[in-house]
Amino acid sequence: MQRPSGRAVDQLRDVRITRHFTCHAEGSVLVEFGNTKVICTASVEEGVPRFLRGEGQGWITAEYGMLPRSTGTRMGREAARGKQGGRTVEIQRLIGRSLRAAVDLKALGENTITIDCDVIQADGGTRTASITGACVALADAIAYLKEKGLVKGEPLARMIASVSVGIYQGVPVLDLDYPEDSGAETDMNIVMGNDGGIIEIQGTAEGEPFTEAEFAAMLALAKKGIADLNQLQQAALAQ
Amino acid sequence: MQRPSGRAVDQLRDVRITRHFTCHAEGSVLVEFGNTKVICTASVEEGVPRFLRGEGQGWITAEYGMLPRSTGTRMGREAARGKQGGRTVEIQRLIGRSLRAAVDLKALGENTITIDCDVIQADGGTRTASITGACVALADAIAYLKEKGLVKGEPLARMIASVSVGIYQGVPVLDLDYPEDSGAETDMNIVMGNDGGIIEIQGTAEGEPFTEAEFAAMLALAKKGIADLNQLQQAALAQ
Amino acid sequence: MQRPSGRAVDQLRDVRITRHFTCHAEGSVLVEFGNTKVICTASVEEGVPRFLRGEGQGWITAEYGMLPRSTGTRMGREAARGKQGGRTVEIQRLIGRSLRAAVDLKALGENTITIDCDVIQADGGTRTASITGACVALADAIAYLKEKGLVKGEPLARMIASVSVGIYQGVPVLDLDYPEDSGAETDMNIVMGNDGGIIEIQGTAEGEPFTEAEFAAMLALAKKGIADLNQLQQAALAQ
Amino acid sequence: MQRPSGRAVDQLRDVRITRHFTCHAEGSVLVEFGNTKVICTASVEEGVPRFLRGEGQGWITAEYGMLPRSTGTRMGREAARGKQGGRTVEIQRLIGRSLRAAVDLKALGENTITIDCDVIQADGGTRTASITGACVALADAIAYLKEKGLVKGEPLARMIASVSVGIYQGVPVLDLDYPEDSGAETDMNIVMGNDGGIIEIQGTAEGEPFTEAEFAAMLALAKKGIADLNQLQQAALAQ
Amino acid sequence: MQRPSGRAVDQLRDVRITRHFTCHAEGSVLVEFGNTKVICTASVEEGVPRFLRGEGQGWITAEYGMLPRSTGTRMGREAARGKQGGRTVEIQRLIGRSLRAAVDLKALGENTITIDCDVIQADGGTRTASITGACVALADAIAYLKEKGLVKGEPLARMIASVSVGIYQGVPVLDLDYPEDSGAETDMNIVMGNDGGIIEIQGTAEGEPFTEAEFAAMLALAKKGIADLNQLQQAALAQ
Amino acid sequence: MQRPSGRAVDQLRDVRITRHFTCHAEGSVLVEFGNTKVICTASVEEGVPRFLRGEGQGWITAEYGMLPRSTGTRMGREAARGKQGGRTVEIQRLIGRSLRAAVDLKALGENTITIDCDVIQADGGTRTASITGACVALADAIAYLKEKGLVKGEPLARMIASVSVGIYQGVPVLDLDYPEDSGAETDMNIVMGNDGGIIEIQGTAEGEPFTEAEFAAMLALAKKGIADLNQLQQAALAQ
């Protein structure tokens, strides 16, 4: 089996994390997983949504979108159609839930951080790139809150990252690009913390069901990939 | 650790599957997982959605809803609010995707089966009960198509079932009811075929990340639970 | 003239009223008019809508829906289409208006009772079955408020019930089922109190206009039918 | 009892029917019931809605709206709020249903006439004025179709008109204006043909239920009022 | 070049401004530019929108609509389609912005005046007629506020009016009607104050770009037309 | 008067035009007017919208959006709110109309080019930057059509560009950035072709009306600015 990109089965695409990509947001990151490019911003607002008022804790929420021509064929603009599609809703719920696992919401105080992940170019793995980039933007936004004295203690509980794994032509592979993704038998997205804990697993058999052994092989690949991504996040934050 | 319901850690709730629950649908099932009650119907229509025309295959799609007072506090009616919430969208996508894995879409021919899962009473696990009940309704709808001579061959590739597992007070448990679900540290929904293959895994750490060992324990519980559910499905279909 | 069901012209279908049908609502009734089956729940909330604040009175409101496959052909789900159809809006306004006539809103105090009528199987007369069943659920919800000491006095002013009448093949008949309803020349829905007062009359000539004599004959049938329904309501409440 | 307007109990307001009020529509009428003023247009289009294609018959449909400041206090514009309210939906369904009873849809051929009733000034009875005025606009539109040779035979089966009746301070009265309407115990709208047949009756007890005797008294008033309105329609069409 | 209407190139259509056209609004004007007829109302409400609270100033906002059959072919009703079209949004923003330039918002105090412009018959130039008529309705609403002692000082800073100009068959012309508008090479709408100041210019080349000389010729025509309109406004207000 | 940026009154911001910014679109440009950054893509599709079918011509349409955190304070995402705001609608109509003036639609044949302008960072002048950048993307998309032999002749009639001008502290200035824009007395956006023709003028007095002399001064600045932008467009296309 030869991957379309020529990569080894356990090899990530070239990953780049550019901080301070736009100038207004408290955290702003351009994350690139090969040709997949996502702008991730973290916006700080005082206060919390109504359902949390008076609970003495903060909130993290996320929204996701794709520019209409981020893909090979132009997709209709969700704002023009008047609603977000099912895939968008599912992805932004995943991003928000995952990033809440990166944060000690009590330590955040009554502040809300809104994550926006906007895909400007898509080539597979946009949700995993989004989570990985957004966690860096989130770290910058939390640093801003600490600098301004708006939080005490440390709201950032851990760094998290995410990668996809799948079975492509019978072989487990790491970090699927679009040609692999559209032909994969099984597709799994995993989110883990830099402490090795599992935060989210979403695996789907596209055609035939998969076995526990295949599952185990994919999980092993994901652990390696996420460890690599954690290092790239640290390197970006160290600059 | 004592489960609120007094069940053993690997014990399902009382599960009942009632076929022919309403009279119009080609497949109509009331599924009960304890106090969780869902009406699952399968509706047959000739033809396929636009994106599949001329492909010589069929389609399975699903919609999910909860009656406003299926829950302890009345929820706003989605039809009145003018849109389906994110949780609804996520669940109905999961149901549809899972049931497509039960079917050989080529053998189905250019027919569409629409699954409706409507929760009339909720006590945790509505999505797993929905999938389990809907597969029986689907089997009835496929039997209808065969009887009428509208399909040749066998579109039903396998029976599938679904159950939740979780970590409750530090202990892995099977088939969480609402009191367990709302206090669980980790919640995982698994869909498997009666051939033991995995179709979907969705696991989420609600608070702290979970370990691979915890994951393995939950997966073992799920396999047992789904085997039990497969037997109940077969018994219902045999009547 | 032979009715499709073989019933006498002044004969109701078999009517069953099952209280405590689901477990969460303060009032929960399954009402069956032959093959028409509707779940009616009454949900109590403290407080009133904005337009009544400070008026020292309560409010009754209603919502109506049909499960997509409650009918012979699957209907699109209103939540998915993003709006309630005209027929739904008209019916839920009728249900709410009628039930407000059953209640002394001053005696209800600043409480709101929301009625949900969800049709799980349709065979004509869903709005009349809904009103008849909902009034029993309403009585249970008011009993709950009295038991909890949340109201003083008696908010239930009268029991109300509803039935359809029509001209079928030139003959006035009571309680039309779907085969009669779809062929009727005139269709009328009447809501009356158990004190014999008229609360709502809605009569429509489907084809030719109808005469005063026909109107009088239909009204006489409706009075008889509603008296029968009042007895069935009382019997259900007495259990 | 003195009516606020000083009218006799069986006296209509001053009614004026102005044809050719605007220049583009095939039928265009300004109808005035005292201070209630409605522009009614009838627009002819070839073809029928999808559900009637190939049935060899025509269709009549209606839409209703109020200018935001047709009322004492400005109402939000429905187009801006993004949906039509329940009252609007109910009224436009009534108008369409009533006018279909004025027409032989087979004789209309595969043509659609759309009625628009737009209230420019409201003082009670907007729906009855709308139906009364719209039938004149409809007659003009049908005359247009006949003149152009687009229909054969006579699609206009009868002229229809509508009026409200009610119980005001214990006394049955005809054609309620806003001060009466807002204080009435019972409010009924009746649509009748010029042949004396009843097309629609919608009666609602606002507070206490009403009796059959009260109903009969109101019906007698309505018959007189509608006969008067039929004459005014004929006079307008004769000009 | 002959204008379709036979008018001189610098000649307005017959313009009529009828005050007190409907009875409920604080200002109500029917404005006619030839066959274009628009009902303009100005509604006074105490208070200001949220974004202005506590700023010690008032607000003017506008909404625009067309009756479905104000045009040659019936347009879909925006309330039924569930959203206002792009042209509507653009026009109502223009009307609101222009009328704010007629008012000293500080002197208005914390009051809001909502302008509604509803086109009952269209023949080109509906937006310019709307602005011209609305300013008279606005003046009446401000007079009402002064009479009631609800404002001190003079909120009306100037009267404004608007007219269209264009290049029709190579010749600059004033106040285009529909036959001219649909064939014009360039179309420009200008809003000016009665002090000669320019408030808004919106010029669009429909086909070929236009030159500065053409622009200057159109501007000169507009100045003349607006001066004429100012006089007609004054005459109407003097009655 | 000192401009906040220190620029001369007739000086553009640093303008950069980067072609081939994303990889999927037929034309893809990042345009920067100082800190304002917009991704402009041009997407080619065969066929035309319904209203143009069979007319033997093509179509150009445009959509505009801002990333939620392209601005100093996060704006709500239009896709999440379920509708595009009035400002968005107005801008995208302007972009589409302007670019149609750059193209010979007959020569384009039955092809549609959709322009998407997505603001990733905003600092004033997003609509003028969008038009200027989009015209370069459009030129690339047309070159693609010519290369593929999908059009004959030359659909690109002219290059167009756009710039804002305004009166800032009493002085006419070119290309306003956000600090100037939010304080300007008058704001005008002008679109011109590289042949010097005017395509669109939209000028608005924010506070006091402006004079013809001010208008003339602004127009002169705009002509200079657009000539500079035309050169930058040509330089970009020459690379």
Number of helices of chain A: 6
Q: Main sheet of chain A? A: 5 strands, mixed
Percent helix of chain A: 25-40%
Oligomeric category? homohexamer
Low-confidence stretches of chain A: none
Q: Which H/E pattern describes the elements of chain A?
A: EEEEHHHEHEEHEEH
Radius of gyration of chain A from the CA trace?
18 Å
Query: What's the CATH first level of chain A?
Result: Alpha Beta
Net shape of chain A: globular
CATH topology name of chain A: Ribosomal Protein S5, domain 2
User: How many beta-strand runs of chain A?
Assistant: 9
Number of domains of chain A: 1
Q: Which sequence of strands runs across the widest sheet of chain A? A: 1-2-3-5-4
The CATH architecture of chain A can be named as: 2-Layer Sandwich
Portion of residues in beta strands of chain A equals: 25-35%
| pLDDT averaged over residues of chain A | 96
**Alpha-carbon distance between the two ends of chain A:** 38 Å
User: Of all protein chain pairs, which has the greatest interface, and how many residues does each chain bring to it?
Assistant: A-F, 34 and 34 residues
**What structural class results from the helix and strand content of chain A?**
alpha+beta
User: CATH superfamily of chain A, called what?
Assistant: GHMP Kinase, N-terminal domain
